[in-house]
Design brief:
Three copies of one chain form a homotrimer. Chain A is mainly β. Chain A is 5% helix and 54% strand. The first copy, chain A, has a 16-stranded antiparallel barrel with strand order 1-3-4-5-6-7-8-9-10-11-12-13-14-15-16-17. Chains A and B meet through strand 1, strand 2 and strand 17 of A and strand 3, strand 4, strand 5, strand 6 and strand 7 of B.
Chain lengths: 335, 335, 335
């Protein structure tokens, strides 16, 4: 038992959402962060070498679900070695995009982040969500070189066939520089495509070409306000020269020892006509302790003539070109 | 890890059941109490305020099942705040019916309780079973006012549609008074009906009217014997003025420092012709320690011309108006 | 929490496999031992009596899976009593075959054991795999009588029907003698057959007769090398007098304080024409600590005119009478 730390997050909120005539009204799991239950530990092997493991599962606090029985079953599962060379692990692991986006996206209420919604719709693998969770992967994280770290991951799609044995394999590499108030992160990601053998969530449907993607994020902390920016471009391999771009700006304003206001704006700029959209959010976080935070906020997305993005409310049976609005109030408890 | 307590119950029994020509013979999980694995903790926030969480999953000790992978996946999952005002929580939580019935039903071997069988068949949400586990719920428990506590829960069905947005929402309120040897509990429960949007387990099929239900339970502890009684009435919204009633009497007789005999009788009195039934049980519990109890007992149900209630044995291919009998011997270990 | 020990194994490897034109290339979970997460504890009841429980679940380290959500959900789940009489438990428990085979099979990389592959193909219930995990079972393990222990298990199939109520019930009994360098184990196992009511993994398809099976294993530790042997025969009830036999030899050679070489050879000798096969393995294990082991190795199976046994690579679309080869390198971490 001394070898294992049991940890997790219990996060639950009341949400109200509206999209055209549809309204959502209820209790949901995972506002600031996905609710989870995890088991981790490390063993000192001598000579500065350590064995590490993490087993982390999604929990759905509001529903009749078990430990990792929903669509998102495991968040991450790996075992690896850490030493002077950095960290190398194998299992189901996060691509660097997960951590970089989480660092620069000030709309930290994941289900209500317009930026997250827009890059997800573009099939991005650089996001603070499941498309950054890589099965069958080998992951390398470098030591910290004066503020600079490099992180590279390779995920096997394991098609187990004669031809196109790398079809669906994902490769992603990121570099991040942190120094005092400054943080900058850059990522390149690609998925080897083969229309017949691409895992769900990776594909640009019907394409046999490699999907390529870039991300740049940065933040500067002025103390009275921390400002952030992000830019993501997914090269859609199905159409020559077709790019889908999303950018975002954000700010975090401390208003008291325990409270902060968080603002964000995101804009999707896609090559296909009438598929743009933009959204903004305003949230307030209030810490009751280091482990327990109350939060509330509002988000709004404006859709284009051909889009139907919504956050909490269903879009079923409703038209395009409508606004989606959402309100939440919740509690996040880390254990 | 110091933030989390891992706890649970491992309960397994040998059971033999007979219904007409069918016979069951085997090992089952969960006699006195459903086998479970849970994770819970609390954080002191100062000023008498506490954050609490509980994550509790069903386990099926006799089968190839994981942590919450059967039909009953989570027993309860919530996070909440406790203070001078009482407790308020959000998640998947127990309605007061769960605790009240468990307190007054002396046939504490849940799968072999005729009362539990009869109220379940009436679609009751006041029972020591899953119909009292409320998804998407807000729950309030009052402080103890000289023996009196009040408990109210509201569960959103989250239909996410334009009309009838409260269809399937459950509301239940209970009051319980405990003072020395006396205990009395009263509950009102309702489910907003809408034939097209009712969650499984809540519905009286095909009805658009609100299902309404009352429960009254009481016990008195004479020391040489503790006696209990319960009454439950479900107003069947599908037929005007049609009520389904179940009542039960029970007794717990301590026979030694470690052993007690438990007796119960339950009777279903329904408005539809030939759907009555009654049943009785006799159990013996023997504690090996505070955490480990051996148990054995016998239950019998007498069916009416149109009922086929059985406890362990299947009724498949068999007629109505038969008797169901069951015998169990098992062990319950709390950890 | 003091009542529960959280434990487990995180084992992950890179594997390359080839069968004819098919090639597998990827990261898999569970080389030396299946990755798992478990919860166990015991309670002293006085007079030399103890209550014990174990809840142990399969985890799939490389995939989006929860705690026991794959085909192998629970490895074992039981509660029992231990005393001067030995141990008696109820739940989902291991037949003695699991432990005996694990003791004598030197190709301790389970997914790459030819012996495991061959006895599995014969429908054996004496193996270091799921066919030795018995649902709805009562298990008895004797005390140690001067090196001799006896272990018997009975699993109910719970057909819950009028006739053939023991159809699919499994009974297995084993005796093992350990004394200094010598170890010998003998097992008899049977499954009551009934073509219409046999659990998956138990059946010899279409047969109404009882499946009978014998196992003999032994090892002798010469210090510079430990040698082992196994013999398994499954009496195929579908054909009169038809037996399927597998035998294996193995050796473990310590080559340093931390390293050992493991060799094995296995041969399947079946009555049906052209269904024989043989295979050999060579592995190297290197301990970084008592809890963390690196491993690598190679396995090869030679198929007969009518067999298509493969370890890592798929056989889909490929012919019979081909060789299957596999290479792995991995890490096993116990916590």
């Amino acid at each position: 038992q001394s070898n294992v730390t049991v940890y997790g997050i219990a996060d639950v909120y009341y949400g109200f959402g509206k999209y055209d005539d549809n309204k959502f009204n209820g209790i949901e799991s995972g506002g600031i962060a996905g609710s989870r239950l995890g088991f981790k530990g490390s063993e000192d092997l001598g000579n500065g070498l350590k064995a590490l493991f993490t087993l982390e599962y999604s929990i759905d606090l509001d529903k009749n679900e078990g430990v990792g029985t929903t669509g998102l079953r495991s968040r991450q599962q790996f075992v690896g070695l850490q030493g002077g060379f950095g960290f190398i692990g194998a299992g189901r692991q996060y691509a660097p995009g997960y951590f970089y986006v989480a660092k620069y996206d000030t709309s930290a209420i994941v289900p209500l982040s317009p930026y997250h919604k827009f890059v997800g719709a573009n099939g991005s693998n650089i996001q603070a969500g499941s498309a950054s969770r890589v099965n069958n992967s080998i992951n390398y994280i470098s030591p910290d070189f004066g503020g600079l770290t490099v992180n590279a991951i390779y995920g096997f799609n394991e098609v187990n066939q004669d031809n196109n044995r790398t079809a669906g394999d994902l490769a992603q590499i990121g570099a991040q520089y942190n120094n005092g108030p400054v943080s900058v992160g850059l990522i390149y990601s690609q998925v080897k495509q083969d229309a017949a053998a691409i895992p769900a969530g990776y594909a640009i449907a019907g394409s046999d070409e490699t999907k390529k993607e870039w991300f740049l994020g940065a933040s500067y902390d002025f103390k009275v306000v921390k400002v952030t920016g992000m830019y993501n471009t997914v090269k859609d391999a199905t159409v020559d020269g077709d790019d889908n771009n999303v950018w975002a700006l954000g700010a975090i304003v401390p208003v008291s020892a325990a409270g902060s206001v968080r603002l964000s704006y995101a804009s999707a700029d896609n090559d296909t006509d009438d598929t743009d959209a933009d959204g903004w959010t305003v949230y307030y976080f209030h810490s009751l302790s280091k482990r327990t935070t109350l939060y509330t906020g509002y988000a709004r997305i404006s859709n284009d003539d051909a889009t139907r993005h919504s956050l909490l409310a269903s879009t079923a049976g409703q038209g395009t070109d409508e606004n989606a609005s959402s309100f939440v109030v919740g509690v996040n408890h880390t254990f």
